[in-house]
Specification:
57% helix, two-stranded antiparallel ribbon, 10% strand, globular, single chain, mainly alpha
């Protein structure tokens, strides 16, 4: 979830204050990461952040691609939304 927020907000670090504040807010308002990614209705997530909701909806609909990392680089997730 924190990587989704980081990606949507176009921030490089998952430890940035902006990302951590957004993460804590959504967890406090909507529940666990599992609940948010799997069960919470998309409309509720949209009230928090429309971009995050769009990515989670893509994950639920299996509209994502993963490029593995290697040679000192991390893998990347692409969302087809």
């Amino acid at each position: 979830l924190i990587d989704i927020i980081r990606s949507v907000k176009n921030i490089k670090s998952t430890s940035s204050v902006t990302v951590l504040n957004a993460y804590n807010k959504i967890i406090n308002e909507l529940g666990t990461e599992f609940d948010i990614i799997i069960e919470v209705p998309i409309e509720k997530i949209k009230k928090f952040d429309e971009g995050v909701a769009t990515v989670i909806e893509a994950i639920r609909e299996n509209k994502i691609e993963y490029t593995p990392g290697g040679g000192g680089t991390y893998g990347q997730i692409q969302f087809s939304v």
